[in-house]
Amino acid sequence: MAEAFYLSLLAVDLSALGGLAERWEIIHRDIKGLGKRMHDEVLTPLRDKGYWEGAAAPYAWKMIDDIERQLESAAKVADAARRVVEDGVGDLKSAQKDLKDATRRAKERGLHINADGTLSPDIIGNVCKVELTGEEKKTIEAADQEIAQILKRGVTADRNLAYSLMADIGLGQWFNSDPGLTDIDSTKKISEGAYNALDLAFQGKDPYPGLSSDDPYSLGWDWVTGDGPRHRDYYYGDEMTELIGSSESMEQLRLDTLEQWRSTGQPQGSVAYSISESGKLGALKKLITTDLPAIVTGDEDHLGEAFTGSYNLNYTVKGQDPDGSLVVEYTMKNNTSNESFLHFIGYYDWLEKFNREEGVFSSVDQKIVWTERIPAKEK
Question: What superkingdom does the record give (predicted)?
Fold first, then answer.
């Protein structure tokens, strides 16, 4: 299990990042102007002074011209990377210092801090109490909120630094000719599509996977017939992903995500949508009045949730814009099976006995992953 961000931020040696910024500066200083030198000292004599003539000459000039452009782009990337790292290191050092101070103050009061940075709600003065006074509760809550807000700053700096730096370097084969970020507070320039590609690249995956042609109807048909693979992955831009993202239920889940982030500062969490929140009668009513009509008409506001039923989303914070908009990667795992087909009667262990691993009506697992920007609802 990965170490909690709270412990990582407390312990990390940020001097290495400071050294990285210095090395980027040295690289920039060493290569700045090389493009012009390549043009003046190599390309111009060959092309304009007749030092190289013949059939291969135009091709050679083009290659040298490409080298010139790459050197100029490399200098731009090095300069942008230096600026981004310098800015990010400053924010991380500030958050780390404040976190250490807040941790020290909490421990001086005898409060217990969990590995994720949250405080135990019943320990004060190094004593676990059955009942707390109002003042003791306020002390614990204040310390908990202080650490949570510092964690938010640390997570934001960490993620914004990573994606700003990666966006400047780029995903192409050649150096990025237009690195547009010089600090970690300009992440609004990174589009949702770019975030999705960068996120896949960070995981060592193809940043631009081909789009899937699956939709709920074809997936349902494959469940019935047993055709196709029994596991499907969907990403940003796939129809299955877009249907979940555009579902009416996602409106509340986005608000829940923002609320959790603001109150806890934790980089990971989960939110859930339940069709039986109003009981079995409510689920049956939804089936008749919303889900079945959506399946018949293809209503995109409800088709995704009609297909999945209740679902959970795990989320990971990927960054936050200065205006408070939150960049989040959502992951959803769904199983189309005989058990899930009967979910409107409830969730019972015995329904699992109806599932099949192969052949007709055999289960199809899906994993849906996408990154999106949630606008700040309040400032």
Answer: Bacteria
Q: Which two tokens stand for residue 370?
A: 């996408």
Q: What is the pLDDT of residues 282-333, one digit of tens each?
A: 666 666 666 666 676 776 777 777 777 788 999 999 999 999 999 999 999 9
- 105 and 223 assigned to the same domain: no
Query: In the listed set 158, 190, 206, which residue is the last one of a domain according to the structure?
Result: 158
Q: How far is residue 298's CA from residue 278's CA, in Å, rounded to a whole number?
A: 25
Number of CB atoms found within 10 A of residue 259's CB = 13
Domain range spanning residue 149? 5-158
User: Given 115, 137, 158, which residue is the final one in a domain?
Assistant: 158
Number of H-type helices and E-type strands within the chain: 14, 7
Q: Which residue has the higher pLDDT, 341 or 208?
A: 208
Same domain, 139 and 284: no
Tell me which residue has tokens 């959790």.
Answer: 260
Distances in Å between the alpha carbon of 80 and those of 51, 72, 73?
Answer: 37, 13, 11
> Which of 93, 84, 82 shows the shortest CA–CA distance to 22?
82
Domain count, the chain: 2
pLDDT tens digits for 63-112? 777 788 888 888 999 999 999 999 999 999 999 999 999 999 999 999 99
Residues 154 and 25 in one domain: yes
For residues 151 and 280, membership in a common domain is answered with no
pLDDT in tens, 159-172: 999 999 999 999 98
